[in-house]
Design a protein that fits this description.
Helix content is 11%, strand content 33%. The protein is built from 2 helices and 10 strands, in the order E-E-E-E-E-E-E-E-E-H-H-E. It has a 5-stranded antiparallel β-sheet, with no helix packed on it. The chain has a 3-stranded antiparallel β-sheet with strand order 5-6-7. Strand 3 and strand 4 form a beta hairpin.
């Protein structure tokens, strides 16, 4: 079930270009896939289908392709070139059928809290600053301090 994805299509359905996808499988593994002219995925070895909220952060850039869950690095692969194209961020939806571990649905069935997109790759300490926040206010402050290009505070202080 996709959490976040970037595609060249504004609406749901097949897209010419799609990558920067974060999704989960029914057992709770987290996946992060990019398309640097070939499929590249990283997968959490642990599962997180325990009914609790989890912070998921995916970064891609010169330091590599990294997946963090609850502030800890859980999967990584070396850096690869970034494929650049104009597109749209999708929350709770992503066209994912070509991924090797593709979800069974292009739609997320669950709740999302805050989603942010940053103009550059976050460091481990920056990820920890967001993931360790103990309140909505502290989390929003940590996210905004890192100057995201887009920020969707979906939990509205819940």
């Amino acid at each position: 079930m996709p959490l976040v994805g970037f595609t060249s299509a504004q609406s749901a359905g097949a897209a010419g270009d799609y990558d920067r996808m974060i999704w989960t499988d029914p057992s709770g593994h987290r996946f992060f896939g990019v398309w640097p002219y070939r499929l590249s995925e990283v997968t959490s070895p642990a599962t997180y289908a325990d009914g609790r909220w989890h912070s998921v952060v995916a970064t891609w850039g010169p330091a590599g392709q990294d997946l963090y869950v609850d502030g800890s690095l859980v999967a990584s692969t070396p850096a690869s070139p970034v494929y650049t194209y104009a597109g749209y961020w999708h929350l709770g939806f992503a066209y994912t059928s070509s991924w090797s571990d593709a979800p069974t649905s292009d739609y997320f069935k669950g709740d999302l809290a805050d989603v942010a997109v940053y103009p550059s790759q976050l460091s481990a300490s920056q990820v920890a600053s967001v993931s360790s926040a103990t309140s909505y206010s502290a989390e929003s402050h940590a996210v905004l301090a890192l100057a995201p290009t887009s920020f969707w505070p979906l939990d509205a202080g819940a």
